[in-house]
Design a protein that fits this description.
This protein is α/β, with parallel strands linked by helices. The protein contains twelve helices and twelve strands. The chain has helices spanning 2-11, 15-26, 29-52, 71-84, 98-109, 127-131, 160-166, 190-203, 255-265, 281-309, 336-348, 405-421, and strands spanning 88-92, 115-118, 146-149, 171-177, 208-212, 231-235, 249-253, 316-317, 329-332, 370-374, 386-390, 396-400. The two termini are 21 Å apart. Bound molecules: pyridoxal-5'-phosphate. Pyridoxal-5'-phosphate binds next to helix 5. Residues 97-99, 124, 126, 177, 179, 181, 212, 214-215, 235 line the site of pyridoxal-5'-phosphate (PLP).
Length: 427
Amino acid sequence: MDELLEMYEELGISPGVYHYGEAALRKLEERFRAIDQVAEYNQAKVLHAMQRNRVSAACFAATTGYGYDDVGRDNLERVYAGVFHTEAALVRPQITCGTHALTVALSANLLPGDELLSPVGRPYDTLEEVIGIRESPCSLKEYGVSYRQVDLLPDGSFDYEGIRKAIGEKTKLVTIQRSKGYATRPTFSVKQIGELIAFVKSVKPGIICMVDNCYGEFVETLEPSDVGADMVVGSLIKNPGGGLAPIGGYICGTKACVSRCAYRLSAPGLGQEVGANLGLMPALYQGLFLAPTVVAGAEKGAIFAANLYEPLGFPCVPNATESRHDIIQAVTLGSEEAMLAFCRGIQAAAPVDSFATPMPWDMPGYDSQVIMAAGAFVQGSSIELSADGPIRPPYAVYFQGGLTWCHAKLGILMSLQKLCDAGIVHL
Ligand SMILES: *Cc1c(COP(=O)(O)O)cnc(C)c1O
């Protein structure tokens, strides 16, 4: 299509890069069809939950102050519970981010003397301070909650013997991170998570299993709550917000766990009854409605990136052909220069701040400089096209998001263009 080629050229994509991309795409038709099928199923699942709960215009009204009798908020929580097949849900703009949602879920369900166990190795960076692995005021450790961790085996599988030994009298809650986050281990499938939960509960039936579901929502037809998780937790500025939610987090799970979360989030005695929606209901409902197809687009972008970069000699996790359980793509670029060029491309393709040049900076909590590229409508939203990574060997960027497949494609082509322009890649 000459017209399209011309438009790409106007945006700065050379014919060479464009045709290289098209050749990679031709091999992906079958995989994209499978992704569309998952999206179709999940779209129906979300729709079904909205219809069964009789979503109506009354649900979109703004409330202020205490937010008593907030019909829209209460119904959105029933819709989330319907989607995740749980007894209850807490979905609030007052939950500021994923880390906050996880903090609420953990601190509500762990008491002094209890032990928290991670059977999947080190948790996400920001949780280290929440747990007290790195000292911080108000950490769980400060409140007398101890922590134990069982690392994955060298091949990335669960160390069942180690986990059995680690579960003791004090073990109250097990936290399972679905996505690799910024680690190099594989992301777990829902099936694997189900097996782990079944094992943990066979060792100690009463144990609470919580899954950090960040970046995993709607990538499969099942969610961890379908395979035994007592709580699934995530951020609305990632997958389930569909790019429209400007803030928020969710906790879906058993009534017992979720009601404690509500008391922790607001106050004992108040629980789920307070918390005005501040006019955000249209965005939260509509974002959830769009989420299955937005996630599908982001996943296609991740697969496209792996299939563009791997043949050029850049190792990719997941690799170009393996199955996926989240929307994150790691590409090892091998040098600082290449990382900068990649991120310049993602930034240049953005709808917002496309004129900015991402620079490495000293981010709190990291031992090396970090570079981030994002031109998002919602600050820090990583369901929108974004890339980041620490400037240190092996010089890997983590790429994710894209509100539409077309935009994800453009961003990846632009990253490759910048690598070509810098003389790092020769097509
Ligand atoms: C993003 C993320 C978090 C934390 O979410 P924030 O919204 O950045 O606080 C926690 N766990 C995983 C696996 C994540 O990807």
